[in-house]
Amino acid sequence: MRRRSGLVQWSAFGAVALLAVWTCCWHLGRQGINVDELVYVQAGWEYVHGTVTANLEHPPTAKYLYGLAQVLFGQGVHAPRLVAAAAVLLTGLVLFVWLRRPVGHWGALFAAGLWWLTPRAAGLDAFDPASATPVRVDRIALLEPVMVLFAVVAIAAGWAWMTTDGRRRWWWAGLAGTALGLAVTSKVTAAFVVLAIVLLPVLFRRWWDLLTGGAIAAVSAIVTFCLAYAPLGLVSAVSYMIAFQTRHDDGGHLVDLGGTTYRFAPWWTQFWWATQGTGPVLVAVVLVGAVAAVVVRPDRLVLTLVAAFVPLMVFLALSTVSLPHYYDAWMPFVLALAAVGWTRLGVLARDELARRRAGRRDGSGARRRAGRPGRPGRPGRVPVLGVALVALVAAGVVASASTTAALAVAVAHVRPAGIAVLDTELRAHGVDGGTILFTSYGAPAWRPYFAQRGSDVLVDGRYAAIVQGTDGRFPVPAAVRAFTQDEADALESFRVDDLRVWVPRGGGDVVVSGSTLTIER
């Protein structure tokens, strides 16, 4: 019986893991290029070839890995995306190995599955293939996938440090510090994970470990940090990063939230992006699971997970810059907490049903011993609480599976879209080369494809086409709007997914002079 149970458990793990590999890796090359991704990939290539001057506003470790991947598998975004995919898969594996002892096989698998198989989009309309929005933050080579992997390893190693006896626990303390150093040198946001690591000895009341193991972890983190920054120049690179990020936060960053544009992101921005990126069903699953974890049994594991993500949330809430993918930093810990909560609801349901069955058996036995016949014609009372809990857990599993299905469909339909195929469509309409005027479309979207021949500022010159996007942060200039309306007969208009394009009918250019636009053949 135990062997059969183990076979079922590991077969389920294998199925979930295989689906995770497919979700992370399928059609990676078809995903549109993100401007930040391109910066990190190019910087990584330069780093491994001895030039360490690019993108010093962010730490280097993830870019080292992206550069090394390009050396091994070819230059471009595809190899770094495989690194990001591997980081996601390893993050889920670490969650599974870590949580298997405290919450059991199925709870650990649920945590890994939530991480591997649910959407975390980096923007809006990710389930529409025409939007070119990644349905998962980690399907492009940003800094977050690598940072998150090392942050989760740091917390898991810290937990092993507390739950391991003997000298081996010092190795876990060293691993926790090293992983923290790698996380922080991938993206500095991970620095807040240190609070959860420091809290662990307090929760376990191991004060000697706080001093000795804490010292080992601290030294490991510092050494790792210094080694990672050594090629860049430790003091100068860190000083530049701090100065840059301070200016960035002081200046804000335009975000469009539900049709309203903000220069300085409101405190709730990250939660808005998370809701848009994961969907209302997964939000409900996470909220119910997290509340259950805190209410049913708020033990050391729950407090550790809460300590891992709450400081990150607070920091991002206080920041005036909040981009669509930032929430990914705290998602693994929130999803793990939700899995713990749902697992304990399931255990509660099982125990309640078992208690009611045991109560009925004891009652029947007592009547027989007293010589009183049972009453076979009278049905037993329905265990309302147990049935309700079973129904709730079943609903949670079905809801989670529905988000997995939606993600799988989105991944299966990923294709080059919008800006990625614009040049091909322009050639099909007789436009081969020339400068493109972009309106209502931010530079981070078009620059990876039209860096040398694009402009989103209405300056004097000749333009081969006008392209209008859907970014409310950058309104269409009144002169451009009036021109496309007044010259509708002289312009050929067509759509490329979410982009609207105008080119002079029969050839020619759009000439901008001051606030006047004309067509010259």
TrEMBL record:
Lineage: Bacteria, Bacillati, Actinomycetota, Actinomycetes, Micrococcales
Source taxon at top rank: Bacteria
Keyword Hydrolase assigned: no
Assigned keywords, A-Z: Cell membrane, Glycosyltransferase, Membrane, Transferase, Transmembrane, Transmembrane helix
Sequence intervals crossing the membrane: 7-29, 82-99, 146-164, 170-203, 210-232, 271-295, 302-323, 329-347, 382-412
Subcellular location: Cell membrane
The ArnT-like N-terminal domain, residue ranges: 16-238
Protein's recorded name: ArnT-like N-terminal domain-containing protein
Predominant location: membrane
Native source species: Curtobacterium oceanosedimentum
Membrane topology: Multi-pass membrane protein
Stretches the record annotates as Disordered: 359-379
